[in-house]
Design a protein that fits this description.
It is built from 26 helices and 58 strands. It is of the alpha+beta class and about 1300 residues long. Strand 36 and strand 37 form a beta hairpin. Helix 5 packs across helix 17. This is USP domain-containing protein.
């Protein structure tokens, strides 16, 4: 029932005038046109399906519509004057007129009721509340009568719907009859205990109720208690009879409401003569025919309304809904006849089996990925079991019989050469069918006609066409479909009958403008013109692609790729073009742009690679559209003669993709020392880190299909030269160049590799290629050991830069430039760091400034953060310090080799720059380390313990073993510890924080009772929790249903040997949960919170907490349930929500438990959802919501990894990669039978993506990013808002008396 919460703000149709200047949301996308039925639906504002159903019924009541349109502006006023003081504008009938005119005349799929509900005085939240359509029917009629007081239409509701009942009590002794008349606009008839509408009416108006025994009647004439009979009769029959069915009842034994779902029959035509007081009229005076049925689907606490309506004026285009079934039946009969006529299949011959399968296909071809399943269906055995041993894989078998089989449709389908498929009859497979169909290729009506049966169905009688109006969706139905609504959860709720005497004039048939005021017709025509213009502009912009044209005269062939001749100006020319046009149109447009172009013109798809521009396929067919040619926005096209560029032949295709290699050569020449000193910091470091010490590099591109020998020739190197690849798997001394002042290792390519291509050698962009001549080994810089060449650091690269920071900061702006001085100290890998520090102090001349203060050397990471001090007793190499890097000289003690440098904070996780530092021995125990930290901050007492940070940089697990040395606990240098107040919990006992999860979907007061005082927590600890399926946003989420309150309930201490059932029992003893009604522990669900989100459901009542892997300090969340739950180990609790057809929103979220024990494939989940909703599995499209990215990931079959050992394809599982479905995930569902939109993105998702882009842009600019979405127990929120009380449905009407 719930739809888009923000739908009411979307203004279409005639709302622009009366909305007070409200702007439509949802971008520039125009509203879609009407569907094949040519009838208009109504948008759901979130919970207004009950209103939509009633409004459609009133619209298709021609007499009601005509009376409403007969009221002019002289009686109703003008909407433009409604805000003027003293003006009496009857807003409700005026808005209803506009809505009806929009539904009749506007070329839109659906109209909005936002202006009408505004005239009711409803706020934005009223559109999301569920109400009863029977209640609305009475309130709306009452509001219209009050609005039309003093006009000629003040009595039309009374004339159309008003009837009278006479209640009589007859005395059995004196015969006196006491009568009382009762007016009605609709009749409420009983459903419980009766089987049909006639039976219910018989009980109401024919059967008599006797007053006898202890229940006597006091007769006014006899003046005593007597036996009497009570009866009721219909005195006056209205033109329109409305029957409200009492589907909802109350079970006094169970003290709960329930819905009557038993069979309840109602006729299409009914004669009310037996139920009337006067029966001497004509039959036509009592005869009624059904024209509308409002249907309720769901239970007594919520559901969805839609309506079946008979199109009396024949305004819609009715199509037989069962035509597809007839086609399938005829096809099945043809297949059976064909199979009877075919010779017996040779099941042991794979050639015969596959040929038979292809022959029986209508398209004369089969998708390759479906061939295995069709073989299984044909011979009841798989290819692997029956044929693989003798014939090999199925793909290899098809290739070896290429005289019989051929591949079509770009290799995705297989067909017989003797009977190839024709382009007309070839049917694309599911993989080929996409929502973005070629806009240049309209649907072939002829092909559609061929698929239709020759004999057209017999047309039904005029005026008997029925439609199902379900919010925005309108579909044709048969009259016999009404019988399906006699019983079940989806069943009839209100019946609307009209007298058979009421006849429509011929001019009203198929004429939606009949009796519509001229001003509304003109307004609708103007709106249609505006919308059509919007659609044309949107279609043009949607099909416009931005192309980048690269002209051949601006390029040259260099390094195996095309390079622009001029670096100053852009080599590409932008061009906006309609993708529906052909390649020939594009070629002609380029000819007109390039007037001086001579000769042939070839258009080739290009792509920019690191090596340069590379060409792929050339567009040959001028009659193909750009869409069909695969040209999309931002595509690169190279314009040339198709043969050469600047006299050089160009190799095209993927196999000739160039690879950009860094060619590295020795650089042994002596350079000027002064220049070297000036360039060492910039160029020297870049050369060292990227190309290696004493080496110079040059970026060169080579074709991927070129051999290594051809590369050597292109470099001009003799055959004796060695080509080496950087050695990435060497020992510590052979790792990255210069690490610790060591050497870099290179692997020599063997002679056999000279004949292999670059792609075969797996060389990719950015790989380094060292070129060495034999005389290079005469230098001490290069040594060869087997196939490994070692490059030693030259002397001019052996230095370390030391920066002095007197305040020890991380580069704050407050440091003065004169205080931050730098000096370059000559160093080697074997030099001790204490010597480096001493030389730096001397050369910086800061002995006096640092007298009496200890100084230490610290490295800096890429973000500018200071790393732990280095041990000055070690050498540069042993300390892991790279030459040609920077060390910072800061105040502080340098650690010894036996010491650890630790950060610590008291109480909470430290912020950057606020933690304290301490040096401790590696051999000291946790207790000694804690004492040293307490002494450092001046704290006393023994009620303290240490905790480590978890991977979220939050306070994690306590360090339990206080007598263990730090080295045994693997506490590393630079780690952060948290000094936490309180005694260590006993070993084997867990201290768990408990939070109460309150789902607003559960309106039961049993779950909302909460003790706010007993547990001592303030209202600040009442949070709003977002489940793993949704994220926090400033505006309310679209119909998520997953936003819930999370309130602190306290903490429990329990043994890790206790069971989950024991934990639930102990949780229920918390004072804060005394008012929560949970009959037994099975009515409670326990979640584990991780990183402030619901992570997993704890299952297994008798499993111990140790087996459930619970640790002390964890946060748990308990959720009361409405029914018992016992999830199995492979049961997954999912939040599923069905997409609203034609809308960018979803119905309310429902919980679904999916058993993935036997089968966790997408097919299994689709089958489970199909059984839940009553749909066909093949019609459902599923997607998983990624709340962090605000995207949806479609669930379909995907390519699984094939094991190299077993050569067996792994089974598809949604529990593994790439979906990793877990408890609490949100799965969206689209029913493709009624919803052609395969896009799951909602407006809220788009706003979330926009926020992410803005945050990323702020981070890129260095500004403060927006707050993260995470909320949870560690983050306090403001006071919790009080729950709004429920209000009855009402419509505000002005005073017009």
């Amino acid at each position: 029932m719930f739809g888009n919460l923000f739908e009411e703000e979307e203004e279409e149709g005639f709302s622009s005038t009366s909305s007070g200047g409200r702007v439509a949301k949802g971008g520039d996308e125009p509203p879609p046109p009407r569907g094949r039925s040519t009838l208009c639906g109504i948008k759901n504002q979130g919970g207004t399906c009950y209103l939509n159903s009633l409004l459609q019924t009133l619209l298709f009541t021609p007499e009601f519509r005509g009376e409403l349109f007969s009221l002019g502006a002289d009686e109703l006023g003008c909407l433009e004057d409604k805000d003027k003081p003293g003006a009496k504008v009857r807003v409700i009938p005026l808005e209803l007129q506009r809505l009806f005119a929009s539904l009749l005349l506007a070329d839109q799929q659906s109209a909005s009721t936002a202006d009408l509900t505004d005239s009711f005085g409803w706020n934005s939240s009223e559109g999301t509340n569920q109400h009863d359509v029977q209640e609305l029917n009475r309130i709306l009629f009452c509001a219209l009568e009050h609005s039309l007081v003093g006009t000629t239409g003040s009595t039309f509701i009374h004339q159309l719907y008003h009837g009278t009942i006479v209640n009589s009590i007859a005395c059995k002794e004196c015969g006196n009859v006491s009568q009382r008349q009762e007016d009605f606009l609709d009749l409420t008839v009983c459903v419980c205990g009766v089987s049909s509408l006639e039976e219910a009416l018989w009980n109401m108006f024919v059967e008599e109720e006797l007053f006898e025994g202890n229940n006597l009647y006091r007769c006014g004439q006899c003046d005593r208690l007597v036996t009497a009979a009570k009866s009721a009769k219909l005195k006056k029959l209205p033109p329109f009879m409305t029957m409200s069915l009492l589907r909802f009842s109350f079970d006094y034994a169970k003290c709960e409401r329930y819905k009557e779902t038993g069979r309840y029959v109602f006729p299409l035509n009914i004669n009310l003569r037996p139920f009337c007081e006067e029966t001497d009229g004509e039959d036509s005076d009592y005869s009624y025919e059904l024209f509308s049925v409002i249907i309720h689907k769901g239970g007594c606490y919520g559901g969805h309304y839609h309506v079946y309506i008979r199109d009396i004026d024949q305004l819609g285009q009715w199509e037989p809904p069962e035509e597809e079934c007839k086609i399938k039946t005829q096809k099945k009969l043809k297949d059976e006849v064909k199979q009877m006529c075919e010779p017996k299949l040779q099941e042991d011959d794979p050639l015969s089996v596959i040929s038979a399968i292809i022959t029986q296909e209508p398209s004369k071809s089969v998708l390759l990925d479906q061939l295995g399943q069709k073989i299984m269906d044909k011979i009841s055995s798989s290819w692997s079991k029956r044929f693989r041993k003798h014939y090999g894989p199925i793909g290899k078998f098809l290739q070896s019989h290429n005289d019989v089989f051929m591949l079509v449709s770009n290799g995705t389908r297989v067909a017989l050469k003797a009977n190839p498929p024709s382009p007309v009859t070839e049917t694309p497979g599911p993989a080929e069918q996409t929502t973005d169909s070629d806009p240049s290729t309209p649907a072939d009506p002829g092909a559609a006609e061929e698929s239709e049966p020759d004999q057209k169905p017999e047309p039904e009688q005029k005026g008997s066409h029925w439609f199902d109006l379900n919010d925005s969706a309108v579909t044709s139905i048969r009259e016999s479909d009404i019988e399906k609504q006699f019983q079940g959860k989806e069943s009839a709720y209100m019946l609307f009958y009209r007298k058979t005497q009421l006849q429509r004039p011929s001019e009203a048939l198929k004429n939606p403008e009949y009796k519509v005021p001229l001003n509304l017709i003109k307004m609708a025509q103007e709106e249609n013109i505006r919308v059509q213009k919007m659609r044309e502009e949107f279609e043009a912009s949607n099909n416009t692609v931005e192309l980048h044209l690269h002209l051949a005269p601006s390029y040259r062939l260099d390094n195996g790729a095309l390079q622009p001749i001029s670096k100053e100006q852009s080599a590409s020319t932008p061009l906006s073009f309609d993708r529906r046009k052909t390649v020939g149109d594009l070629r002609l447009a380029i000819y007109q742009m390039q007037e001086l172009w001579e000769g042939d013109m070839a258009l080739t798809v290009a792509r920019s690679l690191p090596a340069g521009l590379h060409l792929y396929n050339t567009l040959i067919d001028d009659g193909v559209s750009l869409y069909s040619a695969g040209i999309c926005t931002n595509s690169d096209l190279f314009v040339w003669n198709g043969r050469e560029v600047c006299g050089a032949a160009v190799l095209t295709g993927a196999e000739w993709e160039p690879v950009l290699l860094n060619v590295v050569r020795p650089f042994l020449e002596d350079c000027d020392q002064e220049k070297a000193d000036e360039m060492e910091c910039e160029e020297g470091r870049e050369s060292f880190e990227n190309g290696g010490p004493g080496l110079k590099r040059e970026a060169r591109g080579f074709a991927g299909a070129a051999t290594l020998g051809e590369v050597r020739e292109a470099l001009g190197e003799p055959q004796e030269s060695l080509l080496c690849q950087e050695h990435k798997g060497g020992k510590r001394g052979e790792q990255g160049a210069g690490e610790g002042g060591g050497a870099s290792g290179w692997r020599v390519f063997p002679p056999d590799d000279m004949h292999r291509t670059l792609k075969e050698l797996s060389l990719k962009d950015g790989d380094a290629l060292l070129v060495l001549e034999p005389q290079s080994f005469d230098s001490s810089l290069f040594t060869r050991n087997g196939d490994v060449v070692t490059v030693t650091t030259p002397s001019d690269c052996r230095w370390l830069q030391v920066e002095f920071r007197p305040n020890g900061g991380g580069g704050e702006e407050g440091d003065k430039e004169e205080e931050r001085r730098k000096i370059k100290v000559p160093a080697t890998g074997n030099m001790l760091l204490c010597e480096v520090k001493q030389r730096a102090i001397e050369e910086l001349q800061i002995e006096e400034q640092t007298s009496g203060a200890q100084q230490c050397l610290r490295q800096v990471d890429c973000t500018g953060k200071l790393l732990p001090p280095v041990c000055e007793e070690l050498s540069v190499r042993d300390a892991g310090v790279r030459l040609m890097t920077t060390l910072t000289l800061c105040p502080g003690n340098a650690p010894k080799a036996s010491q650890l440098f630790l950060h610590f904070s008291v109480g909470t996780a430290p912020s950057a720059g606020f933690e304290k530092d301490i040096l401790v021995e590696k051999s000291c125990t946790v207790k000694e380390c804690l004492k040293a930290m307490l002494d450092d901050v001046g704290l006393d007492g023994t009620c303290w313990h240490l905790r480590r940070l978890d991977w979220c940089e939050e306070v994690g697990e306590p360090i339990m073993d206080e007598d263990a040395p730090l080295s045994e606990l693997k506490i590393n240098n630079g780690e952060t510890l948290i000094v936490t107040e309180g005694q260590l919990p006993p070993k084997g006992f867990l201290k768990l924080s408990v939070w109460l999860y309150l789902d607003p979907r559960n309106n039961s007061s049993d779950f909302t009772g909460f003790n706010h005082t007993d547990n001592g927590h303030t209202e600040e600890q009442m949070l709003e929790l977002l489940t793993a399926s949704e994220t926090h946003s400033p505006s309310p989420p679209l119909c998520t249903g997953n936003t819930a309150e999370l309130r602190s309930a306290g903490q429990v201490e329990i043994s890790d040997e206790a069971t989950l059932e024991d934990l639930k029992t102990q949780v229920l003893t918390l004072p804060a949960l005394q008012d929560v009604c949970v009959p037994i522990t099975a009515f409670m669900r326990v979640w584990q919170l991780e990183c402030q989100r619901l992570a997993r459901i704890l299952r297994g009542q008798q499993l111990t907490l140790k087996k459930l892997k619970l640790t002390s300090g964890m946060d748990l969340c308990v959720q009361p349930l409405l029914k018992e739950e016992d999830l199995g180990p492979k049961d997954v609790m999912l939040n599923v929500k069905m997409g609203v057809p034609g809308e960018r929103c979803f119905y309310p979220t429902e919980e679904l438990v999916w058993d993935a024990a036997r089968d966790s494939s997408p097919r299994s989940l689709r089958t489970c959802l199909a059984a839940h909703y009553g749909f066909s599995p093949d019609s459902l499209l599923l997607a998983k919501h990624q709340p962090d990215k605000h995207t949806w990931e479609e669930m379909s079959t995907w390519n699984q990894q094939v094991s190299k050992k077993k050569k067996k394809r792994k089974a598809e599982s949604l529990l593994g990669a790439p979906f990793h479905l877990k408890d609490g995930d949100t799965v969206g569902i689209k029913n493709l039978l009624i919803d052609n939109n395969r896009n799951f993105l909602t407006l809220e998702d788009e706003r979330g993506q926009q926020r992410l882009r803005e945050q990323a842009e702020q981070r890129r600019k260095g500004g403060p990013a927006a707050d993260s979405d995470g909320v949870g127990p560690q983050k306090k929120a403001g006071p919790n808002k009080s729950r709004k009380p429920e209000v009855a449905l009402s419509i505000n009407v002005g005073v017009f008396r």
